[in-house]
Amino acid sequence: MPIPADRPLVMGIVNVTPDSFSDGGRYLDHAAALDHAGALVAAGAAILDLGGESTRPGSLPVPVEAELARVLPVLQAVHDLGVPVSVDTMKPAVMRAAVAAGAAMINDVYGFRAEGAWEAVRDSDCALCIMHMQGEPRSMQVAPRYDDVVAEVEAFLADRIAAAEAAGIARARLWIDPGFGFGKSLEHNLALLRALPRLARLAPVLAGLSRKRMIGALTGREVPADRVAGSVAAALRAVENGAGIVRVHDVAETVDALKVWLASAGRA
Ligand code: 7PJ
After folding, report:
1. Does ligand 1 have an atom closer than 6 angstroms to the CB of 7?
2. Which of 9, 107, 140, 148 is packed most tightly, with the most Cβ within 10 A?
3. Which pTM does this prediction carry?
4. Residue 259: CB within 6 Å of ligand 1?
5. What digits encode the pLDDT tens for the residues 126-140?
6. Does residue 50 contact residue 88 with C-beta atoms inside 8 Å?
7. How far apart (Å, rounded) are the C-alpha atoms in residues 66 and 215?
């Protein structure tokens, strides 16, 4: 299913990770993810992002079999919801399986740097989102450091675009993402948010700011679920600065805000 390119899209986040409140049963995890996906589409999500491995600061890797067992059954089932589905993974084996199962996008926070990643997605027409991350999830927030964060993220993304093209992947398939919160301080994140128009010259931009620590830092909200209004403001700024997709938890709120904001700007 192709990704519409004529308007800013709200991407709803669907985590398929074991629920600490369930008994860990696989069926319950899948059913919960599917329920959530349906609710996000009903709330107006134009695309879903399905992830079976947490990449939050401090998180540890998940074995490939476990990630496949989490993501694939849900990917197959969410197709019936009628929106394109992105799969959030760093693993070539998961990319291959997701492409074969009809994923519309592969979203890789590691920027397709794993051995075999380009080959896993080359012979298909699915979109690719190349994200910038400094370090690894386990340690990335310990001491993020840049001389010029915008120039360095831009150079990384340009380099990855060139690598994709060298691997035989059409540029029209590529999206880029500065990776808010992935090895970045609050100041780094704000500089990148302001610089989105510059990054958008490279490729269409996907921005993920939803409920992140930077929103907590700016609002004083410790609890991620309390960061909705701050996250909506960040999503609007990202779209104003050229983002084509905003990746969010709070789909209904973001869709409403975008409708009003776009209409008031004469863009609806
Ligand atoms: C992002 C992501 C993001 C893209 C996560 C979280 C952490 N993929 N996956 N961009 N964040 N492309 O949602 O807080 O910002 S997981």
Report:
1. no
2. 107
3. 0.96
4. no
5. 999 999 999 888 888
6. yes
7. 31
